[in-house]
């Protein structure tokens, strides 16, 4: 199913696009800027020939009508999404290798960006929305640098397929049964506190983050459970009454100190 079909914008005689066509004369009466064409279906041709500034003003009016903080008109959101379909479809085509559901993901993100466009402070509606659709889709799929916004720790991980030779190397260096993760964590943190590498406050902070990250996974949150994932950081920062930035700075400092301690534990 195409991006247009996902949003009920494939047939001008039916569904959301038909409603938008019916509303066009009403919007034009209310908003002089929209009086550039008599029929919504004529607008793409006008856009192709018009000055960019004029186009932005028309799209801005539709964005205002579509926004819950403006006209809260779903049909206007449909009209704006329909006009932005070329950019959204191009985005879907470029990212098609990421998921077989790319049209669905792009359509959902396009609708969100149309409805949430900050018309009070931004212009250049088409450029901003299409750019944000791409960013949102990449973030949703956990791809590239946008994953850092969701889970900074996991964004630096390197996934290995089961047949990768690195697993053989790792297996050869661990002939005995591995230490239980909980026991290893207790040993590392205990040694770190005893050696005054971190204090008890840092230890408790790391444990709280571990629990929060584990809880986020259980709820099916996006990200892969990194210790400083956004959801875990926000929860623990609120619990302790500090800013997320302050907490992350302390955690990163503690983690760097712990690396030295961990290296002294026999494999």
Distance between the termini: 53 Å
Q: How many structural domains in the coordinates?
A: 2
Strand content: under 5%
Task: Describe the global form.
Answer: elongated
Q: Please count the beta strands (DSSP E, at least 2 residues each).
A: 0
What Rg is obtained from the alpha carbons, in whole angstroms? 26 Å
What is the succession of H and E elements? HHHHHHHHHHHHHHH
Query: How many helices?
Result: 15
| Helix proportion range | 55-70%
Which terms would index this structure?
64% helix, mainly alpha, 267 residues
Report what the structure shows.
This protein is mainly α and about 270 residues long. The chain has two domains: about 150 residues, no CATH class; about 90 residues. It contains 15 helices and no strands. It is elongated. About 0% of the residues have low confidence.
What's a quick, concise take on this entry?
The chain is mainly alpha-helical. It has 15 helices and no strands.
What is the topology?
Layout: H1 3-6, H2 15-30, H3 43-49, H4 52-66, H5 74-83, H6 85-94, H7 102-116, H8 125-141, H9 147-150, H10 152-155, H11 166-172, H12 181-194, H13 200-218, H14 230-240, H15 244-262
């Amino acid at each position: 199913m195409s991006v247009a079909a996902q949003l009920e914008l494939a047939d001008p005689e039916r569904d959301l696009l038909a409603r938008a066509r019916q509303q066009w004369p009403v919007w034009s009466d209310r908003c002089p800027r929209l009086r550039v064409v008599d029929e919504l279906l004529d607008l793409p041709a006008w856009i192709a020939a018009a000055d960019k500034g004029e186009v932005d003003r028309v799209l801005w009016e539709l964005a205002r009508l579509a926004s819950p903080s403006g006209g809260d008109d779903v049909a206007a959101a449909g009209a704006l999404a329909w006009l932005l379909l070329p950019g959204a479809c191009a985005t879907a085509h470029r990212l098609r290798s990421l998921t077989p559901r790319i049209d669905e993901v792009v359509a959902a993100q396009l609708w969100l960006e149309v409805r949430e466009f900050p018309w009070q402070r931004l212009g250049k509606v088409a450029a901003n929305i299409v750019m944000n659709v791409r960013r949102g889709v990449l973030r949703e799929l956990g791809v590239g640098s946008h994953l850092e916004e969701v889970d900074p720790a996991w964004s630096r991980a390197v996934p290995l397929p089961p047949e990768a030779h690195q697993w053989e190397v790792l297996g050869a260096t661990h002939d005995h049964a591995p230490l239980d993760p909980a026991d290893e964590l207790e040993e590392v943190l205990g040694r770190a506190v005893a050696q005054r590498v971190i204090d008890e406050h840092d230890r408790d902070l790391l444990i709280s983050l571990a629990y929060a990250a584990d809880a986020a996974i259980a709820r099916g949150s996006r990200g892969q459970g990194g210790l400083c994932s956004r959801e875990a950081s926000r929860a623990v920062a609120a619990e302790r009454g500090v800013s997320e930035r302050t907490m992350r700075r302390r955690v990163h400092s503690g983690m760097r100190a712990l690396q030295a301690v961990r290296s002294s534990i026999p494999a």
